[in-house]
Amino acid sequence: MEIWQIVGIALVAAILGVVLKQVRREIALQLSILTGVIIFTLILDKIKIIIDLLQNLADQANISSYYLIIVLKIVGVAYLAEFGADICRDADEKALATKIEIAAKVGVLVLAIPIIVAILESIMRLLP
């Protein structure tokens, strides 16, 4: 799927959403969520290519796939949180959007702990 097709789908959904908000606000929100899911499924092939490339690079650099998986989880948490927060903002639930963003930041920090520990241990081994 090319970006111009994705932009086209998003623009059509946005125009329909504006019209639907005047008539049935809850259907406009559902359309927005559905469009986001459709776009995500359309880019899954590209995500798979990126993951495979990163895995190959990690193998060539002799980096444990454990750390690559952590980084991919962190990226996933960030994207999912942004998607959820944007949906909440579309529903005029700005406070909920902020809570999602805070939870995602805490989640990212928790996921990053093994990487932080590994870096600190490496630094400690280098110091006399």
Write the layout of secondary structure elements.
Layout: H1 3-23, H2 25-42, H3 44-60, H4 65-90, H5 94-126
Helix pairs in contact: 1-2, 4-5
Structure, briefly:
This protein is an all-alpha fold and 128 residues long. The chain has 5 helices and no strands.
Keywords:
5 helices, 128 residues, mainly alpha, 90% helix
Q: How much helix, percentage-wise, in residues? A: over 70%
SSE order in H/E notation? HHHHH
Write down the overall mean pLDDT: 92
Gyration radius from CA atoms, angstroms: 20 Å
Tally of helical runs = 5
Shape by Cα distribution: elongated
Strand content: under 5%
Measured distance between first and last alpha carbons: 54 Å
Low-confidence stretches: none
Q: Biggest sheet, open or closed, and with what strands and sense? A: none
Count of DSSP E strands?
A: 0
**Structural class, from secondary structure content?**
mainly alpha
Write a structural description.
With 128 residues, this protein is mainly α. It has five helices and no strands. It has helices at 3-23, 25-42, 44-60, 65-90, 94-126. The longest helix has 33 residues, at 94-126. The chain is elongated, with a radius of gyration of 20 Å. It starts with a helix and ends with a helix. The mean pLDDT is 92.
